[in-house]
Amino acid sequence: MNRIRELRELQGWKQEDLGQRLNVGKGAISRYETEKRQLDPSTINALCDLFGCTADYLIGRSPSPLPVITPEDSAVLEAYRALPL
Fold it and tell me: What global pTM score does this model have?
């Protein structure tokens, strides 16, 4: 299943609803979902913002909709959080 369709349906949105949020018509959404139209970078960004997922998940490169944090990244984040305000 196309991830755009999957995410749209999880939100309970019709193609028209998603189209309104992206300022495109229902036909464009249909073509994105059937992969008859390629996503441009700005549309990918807008979809990721709407759905709260990563671009890698949206285009099928990752099985997880959330970013993967490596142990090294986690250590940096923890050190940052420990800094005095």
Answer: 0.77
